[in-house]
Design goal:
Largest sheet: 6 strands, mixed
Number of strands: 23
Structural class: alpha+beta
Strand content: 15-25%
Distance between the termini: 61 Å
Strand order of the largest sheet: 15-19-20-18-17-16
Helix content: 40-55%
Length: 678
């Protein structure tokens, strides 16, 4: 079977289902009696099993099948949730994530899962301490029967009669899929999920497992109890792609005969539906309606297409700027009004396109509860994780890159920051340490903070190591604050660990984290309080696609300096320039800082002889705590520009992060202040 065309859909939906399982598994550990959480995990595992079996990924299918069996016993009250079950499912999630990632990289997605399968089978059979006495709940799903004979047992008949008395109608539904349908199991499950949000399916032919594994022809049957009309059921089934026909029969009140109320649902062959296969149950019909409407109006768009759209839009912005210049030279009121209107509309378009790239940071944060749980066990520590601001949005490009630095910082806080319970008791602290992961917007930036209530950063230890490494002298160290000393742990190769650990790294310090964050146009700072904890704060630009800059001129060249790096602009009299160690410096608010000329750095040729300058235009930029003044000829003004790469031909150019095209068609280089601040 040719499944290559469905691979992208499989990967997208697999990641969504794994995220659902991940989000709910730790919640289940906190609320083990909540069967709705079990159902949520079960549905995702069930769908993932069907999809992977259809696509031929047997290791994923076999693992999710065993996980599903355990979950089914829990929701049927035959097992009680405990740490053994939670641990096993968490390991299963990790295995599944690895296999899906392997498939996305072009591999076969195979992994040795035999040990975990054996562990899950033992739990399923009650051979480990995970079982409790068997409790059979009578109103659970029953076995299926041959729909043609409609041979219902006494229990099924009782359910149907009680349902009729309560105003529910029993429907017998036969569904035929189109001949072109390849993912039959996935389509069938989408039908089940859509119908279950409107009633209860009490039997299927063939079995549910066979249907969702795709082990049937092009049709299957089911019996549905619902309070909705046959027309409503018709509309629900119509929303599922690749359904060719559905026959609906209403069972009579006496249940002795079947009244024909056949309705045919005929549809043209449709493209594969790219919506997630899971439709969550809602508590009321209003929410269900809103849920379905929202889902049907959502599509996936490749990020590259949005990038292409943004690039094309920049051409529109350039032409808009040129039209603005032209309208100022031509005295035509209609032209001016049209250009002004186009400017407003294009600004709204620009905001909308950029908003399309923004995604909640929740996608990154969701991996950490599971990680903290594992680290707590490994280190014999009690740690609670609080996540604040998970709905804060950040550019997709930044989201993809920020995960690893956050993992490193969190591991560092857990390993070196938060103490073991005995140590915390000695200092009058609760045994359970607290880790807070916080995200929020501030201006054109997003801040991410990792805060712990641990021992803080040991100033004496860091200071001694910094002096030993030659980073500072003893005299300089006496003048620095605790936070300034703590910043040295971000230096290359810096580590104060008494022994190397696999938890927070291999003794290489946090310089890798710092480099990654700075490459994203951000910066990281540290606040520490001995005995009370530390806060690692990461400042990131909202988006890497568009940045606010200050345009400056150097001779006849125009450069853009990112506003996020600018402290202040200064007009400095020439006689205020001083020399220190043969280098030009200036007094900035009582602090001596170096100054450099952009003309000298970039070898900008002098286009014409200028009169001797009496004042210098200086842009004061920062990199962490360090400041430098950049000498320019003049300030032009602020402008939001789109960062364009210099391309492979030019490669990396010192102190230049990219370029942008101005309204007059000229190219302005965008300066990287981090390279100029020493």
């Amino acid at each position: 079977m040719e499944t290559e065309q469905y691979l992208d859909m499989f990967l997208d939906e697999s990641r969504e289902h794994l995220q659902i399982i991940n989000d709910n598994i730790l919640q289940l550990e906190k609320e083990p009696e909540d069967i709705s959480i079990v159902n949520e995990i079960f549905r995702s595992a069930h769908t993932l099993k069907g999809m992977s079996a259809t696509m031929g990924f047997e290791d994923i299918a076999s693992l999710t099948h065993k996980m599903e069996n355990v979950l089914d016993l829990i929701r049927n009250h035959q097992l009680t949730v405990n740490s053994e079950i939670i641990d096993s499912i968490i390991v299963g999630i990790e295995y599944l994530e690895e296999m899906v990632q392997s498939i996305s990289e072009g591999n076969d997605g195979k992994k040795d899962v035999t040990t975990l399968l054996s562990r899950l089978e033992q739990i399923e059979k009650g051979e480990v301490a995970a079982t409790t006495e068997t409790i059979i709940i009578p109103d659970q799903q029953v076995n299926t029967v041959d729909v043609e004979k409609l041979d219902l047992d006494e229990f099924q008949l009782t359910i149907l009669k009680q349902a009729k008395e309560q105003g529910f109608e029993p429907y017998q539904i036969s569904i035929e899929l189109s001949d072109e349908c390849i993912l039959k199991g996935a389509r069938a499950y989408m039908v089940f999920e859509a119908l279950e949000s409107h009633g209860e399916i009490i039997q299927t032919t063939p079995t549910v497992e066979e249907i969702e594994d795709g082990n049937f022809g092009q049709s299957f049957q089911l019996t549905l109890l619902t309070g909705d009309s046959s027309n409503t059921i018709k509309e629900i089934i119509e929303k599922v792609s690749e359904v060719k026909e559905a026959n609906i029969q209403l069972l009579s009140k006496t249940l002795g005969s079947v009244e024909s109320e056949k309705e045919s649902i005929k549809k043209d062959n449709e493209a594969v539906d790219i919506q997630p296969a899971v439709v969550k149950k809602e508590e009321n019909s209003k929410n269900k309606s809103e849920k379905r409407t929202s889902s049907s109006r959502t599509i996936r768009v490749n990020l590259e297409k949005i990038d292409d759209l943004l690039n094309l839009f920049e051409e529109v912005v350039i032409d808009r700027s040129r039209l603005e210049v032209i309208s100022e030279t031509i005295d035509d009121i209609d032209l001016k009004e049209t250009v002004e209107h186009m400017s407003r509309v294009s600004s709204d378009m620009q905001s909308l396109i950029l908003a399309m790239r923004m995604v909640p940071i929740e996608q990154v944060f969701n991996r950490f509860p599971r990680m903290i749980r594992g680290l707590s066990k490994d280190l014999n520590k009690q740690i609670s994780l609080e996540i604040i601001g998970a709905d804060t949005e950040l550019d997709r490009t930044v989201i993809d890159e920020i995960g690893d630095p956050l993992v490193h910082l969190i591991r560092n806080s857990v390993d070196h920051g938060i103490e073991i319970p005995e140590e915390r008791r000695k200092h009058g602290k609760p045994e359970e340490g607290k880790l807070v992961l916080r995200a929020f917007h501030s201006g054109n930036h997003v801040f991410i903070e990792i805060e712990d209530d641990g021992a803080g950063i040991n100033r004496d230890k860091v200071q001694s190591k910094a002096i030993e490494n030659g980073l500072i002298t003893e005299q300089e160290a006496e003048l620095l604050t605790d936070d300034q000393i703590a910043a040295f742990i971000m230096s290359s190769g810096f580590s104060t660990a008494d022994k190397v650990s696999d938890i927070s790294g291999r003794g290489v310090g946090l310089d890798v984290v710092k480099s990654k964050i700075e490459s994203l146009g951000g910066q990281v700072s540290i606040e520490t309080n001995a005995g009370q904890g530390s806060i690692f704060s990461i400042q990131l630009p909202l988006t890497l696609s568009i940045i606010a800059t200050l345009l400056v001129s150097v001779q006849k060249e125009t450069y853009a300096v990112p506003l996020s790096s600018i402290i202040e602009t200064v007009v400095l009299p020439k006689n205020k320039i001083m020399l220190a160690h043969g280098k030009e410096v200036m007094d900035f608010r009582g602090k001596v800082i170096p100054i450099v000329s952009l003309a000298s750095i970039f070898n900008v040729p002098a286009m014409e002889k200028k009169p001797d300058q009496q004042n210098y235009a200086i842009v004061v930029v920062k990199k962490g705590e360090k400041l430098t003044g950049l000498i320019v000829d003049a300030f032009i003004g602020q402008k939001e520009v789109v960062l364009k790469s210099l391309g492979n031909y030019l490669g990396e150019v010192f102190a230049i992060s990219g370029a942008t095209i101005l309204g007059d068609g000229e190219v302005a280089l965008i300066i990287d202040p981090n390279a100029l601040v020493k």
